[in-house]
Design goal:
By secondary structure, this protein is α/β, with parallel strands linked by helices. Among the domains are: 2-121, Ubiquitin-like (UB roll), CATH 3.10.20.30; 143-214, Ubiquitin-like (UB roll) (Roll), CATH 3.10.20; 424-542, no CATH class. It is 28% helix and 22% strand. The protein contains 19 helices and 33 strands. Strand 26 and strand 27 (514-520) form a beta hairpin. It is globular and about 105 Å long. It starts with a strand and ends with a helix.
């Protein structure tokens, strides 16, 4: 199995050429003459085909990469596949085959190759679970529509139609001092003629006419986009009332250049034109998302008049076509930390000719517009309580504070939480294990996978997963399985898998000099129908290296948060909000058990959804919100973890599960922690609790583990 781009190597044959698939990261060596489709199937890569590999359906299209890929250790080229043959030529003649694409069933391996599987060729697209919970705010969009009747021209009253339009807008609507885009001026006279001198105009920011239509036109739409390093999510909304008409997400194709941000900066530094290429692919992906949202809402992209965008600093710079290499080393200088306003056409996005794009301001070199969006969505700057806001991703962004003071930092957690660097890891997609429970007595697991509502020990689980199989472990599943193994005593506080327990269960198996835990034995695919077999389920292990990778990631996140607490001068946190596509799926109890964040009241730890995307949506719909966040980010104090002398100390302490020395008063009241004494009344009083743990029923602790995580 692989880990969403970083994998262990599967080897159907020890010799032969190496084939690496993105975005899954699965790889293997194959004999010359093996088709890409057969290679994909043998590795469990999600590549579609309904014609039996006869070159007829075209669903197995792939894109062979060109160039050197040091991260993967190969030189890739389309020339390392067999030349296009008669079948591909015939398909191209009849249905069209985009330049650079090959039919996986007809392209044979002849050398090392990196192959990208585009979303439309995947049976199961990435599950982008980014909701739209929006706080109350006043809708005040930057684009407004005005319908006016324009005075007809007369010989006795010389002057241009634009001047008469501007005069009519001032007279009827009180909007004065307007200028107009060239496109609007070009459209003006045809619109006047078609509409009988009654037209609707779009005015941007009270200053500029950006669009014009004949008669009444009452549709003004906008799109809020969150460009993440792994996924790109967007929401299409009506600017007039804020109604979200469509939401969608796509994978960020930049992942082929590196899973984490520094890998992409390195790619830009080491490859001439690398930054330009990454700009091109991310703009294409955002453009595809815009068109997809419009199609979902059954509207024309020309109705999109405004777009707001958030993203971390490197995504921000690459999208704008700015070289990100200065962000790769101290002092991590941004090209700009201010809000950016450009035309949609300048960044190659499909929209109305006069559409504008607004990018929220960045905070510092590694705390970007996505953190600004999260702050705008969660408003810790308006609260009296101390809030910890964490966007959990390959580069965690952390904000701590209240109305009195806000601090921010970034922490390099890496891609382990998204399935990378984990032997059986994968991204969130159907078939991925997302919830895990382990029996304390028998050490037997049960789990749930994305796409099925049943647990693995329930009747009907096999039937509900026959089309997906059980393919790997996604981020939330990784957090839960390691936390559960710790509670069961399989993993010690220092992160060691206890091999002595192999005498109790066959689930613990030797693995070189260490031990692994067998989460799922796997099995062959089941028959779905005549001649159709479902996917096989591989054996899924939790290895010692997997535990270490999660320890390193969670310690970096905890240390960053603890460092902000040191600077703020606080020992406790009132509220924790976990944001992002991954963060919002983490069970709060298991996050505390693992030691992902500092201890806090369990009922005050929760998901913030895609807070960055929500902030982008608020900025889309409110000019006042834009002014507000531009003001607030200037007050945020940035703490640079890379040069903080105490970061390493905090990091080492946080390597233990949950933590080497932290009191864990709140967590100890929710669950029995191995090797920890129960909190006494004094600890309860210190934590502000009116009730001691001894007053709880004896079985309350274990019950809380299940109910909290299964809600």
């Amino acid at each position: 199995m692989t880990a969403g781009g970083t994998s262990i190597e599967a080897s159907p044959t020890r010799g032969g050429a190496q084939v690496i698939f993105t975005p899954s990261g699965r790889r293997g060596r194959f004999d010359p003459g093996t088709t890409i489709l057969d290679a994909a199937r043998s590795l469990g890569v999600d590549l579609d085909s309904v014609c039996g590999g006869r070159g007829l359906c075209g669903r197995c299209q792939v894109v062979p990469a060109e160039g050197s890929f040091p991260k993967h250790g190969i030189e890739s080229s389309d020339g390392h596949l067999s030349p296009r043959g008669a079948d591909e030529a015939e398909y191209d003649r009849l249905r069209g085959l985009t330049a650079g694409r090959r039919l996986g069933c007809r392209a044979h391996v002849e050398g090392d190759v990196l192959v990208d599987v585009p979303p439309e060729s995947q049976v199961h697209r990435q599950v982008v679970r980014k909701g739209v919970p929006v706080r109350d705010f006043v809708i005040d969009p930057v684009v407004r529509l005005y319908e006016v009747e324009v005075e007809r021209p007369e010989l006795a009253k010389p002057g241009g139609d634009l001047a008469r339009l501007v005069a009519a807008l001032e007279k009827e609507w009180g909007v004065s001092g307007l200028v107009a885009d060239l496109g609007a001026i070009r459209d003006l006279q045809p619109a006047l003629e078609s509409g009988g001198h009654r037209v609707t105009v779009a005015v941007h920011n009270g200053t500029t006419i950006t669009g014009i239509w004949p008669g009444l036109h009452d549709r003004a739409l906008g799109i809020a986009i969150d460009i993440g390093s792994t996924t790109i999510a967007g929401h299409l909304a009506n600017l007039a009332d804020g109604e979200v008409l469509a939401s969608d997400g796509v994978m960020n194709p930049q992942i082929r250049f590196g899973e984490d941000l520094m890998s992409r900066v390195s790619y830009a530094m080491l490859h001439e034109g690398g930054a330009v290429e990454m700009t091109r692919v991310v703009r294409e992906a955002v453009g595809s998302l815009v068109r997809g949202l419009a199609a979902r809402a059954e509207i024309a992209v020309e109705d999109v008049l405004e777009i707001t965008i958030v993203g971390n600093p490197i995504m921000h710079h690459l999208f704008l076509g700015i070289d990100p290499t200065p962000l790769g080393s101290a002092p991590f200088a941004l090209a700009t930390d201010r809000a950016v306003r450009v035309r949609a056409s300048e960044v190659e996005l499909p929209a109305h000719e006069g559409a504008r794009v607004y990018l929220l301001p960045c905070i510092a070199g590694h705390v970007g517009a996505d953190a600004a969006g999260a702050i705008l969505a969660e408003t810790p700057y308006l609260a009296d309580e101390i809030t910890l806001l964490v966007d959990v991703g390959t580069n965690a962004e952390i904000v701590l504070g209240s109305r009195d003071r806000l601090l921010a930092a970034s922490s390099p957690t890496g891609p382990a939480f998204e399935g990378a660097q984990i032997s059986s890891g994968q991204r969130a997609a159907p078939g991925a294990i997302e919830r895990v429970r382990i029996d304390r007595a028998t050490l037997e697991p049960r789990f749930r996978v994305i796409g099925s509502a049943r647990w693995s020990d329930e009747t009907g689980f096999a039937a509900s997963t026959r089309r997906t199989g059980v393919t790997g472990i996604c981020g939330s599943g990784i957090v839960e399985v390691i936390a559960e193994l710790f509670l069961a005593g399989v993993i010690t506080a220092d992160g060691t898998i206890d091999g002595a327990l192999a005498a109790r269960t066959s689930r613990i198996v030797p693995d070189g000099r260490t031990f692994s835990y067998v989460l799922s034995e796997g099995g062959p695919g089941v028959r779905l129908g005549e001649g159709e077999i479902g996917p096989a389920s591989p054996r899924l292990l939790v290895t010692q290296n997997d535990v270490r990778a999660i320890q390193l990631a969670k310690a970096a996140l905890y240390a960053g948060a603890r460092l902000l607490m040191d600077h703020l001068g606080v020992q406790t946190i009132d509220r924790v909000k976990l944001a992002g596509a991954f963060g919002s799926q983490i069970d709060p109890l298991h996050a505390l058990i693992l030691g992902l964040v500092p201890d806090a009241p369990l009922d005050r730890v929760g998901a913030a959804g895609n807070a960055a995307g929500t902030g982008a949506l608020i900025a889309l719909l409110s000019v006042a919100a834009r002014r507000e966040i531009e003001r607030v980010v200037r007050t945020v104090e940035k703490i640079e973890t890379a040069i903080e002398p105490r970061f390493q100390e905090r990091f080492v302490e946080a390597m233990a599960i949950p933590h080497a020395s932290a009191p864990l008063v709140h967590l100890s009241k929710a669950v029995d922690l191995p090797g920890r004494a129960k909190p006494d009344a004094g600890a309860d009083a210190a934590a502000g609790s009116p009730r001691s743990s001894s007053s709880r029923p004896p079985n309350r602790r274990r019950q809380s583990v299940s109910t909290s995580a299964e809600r």
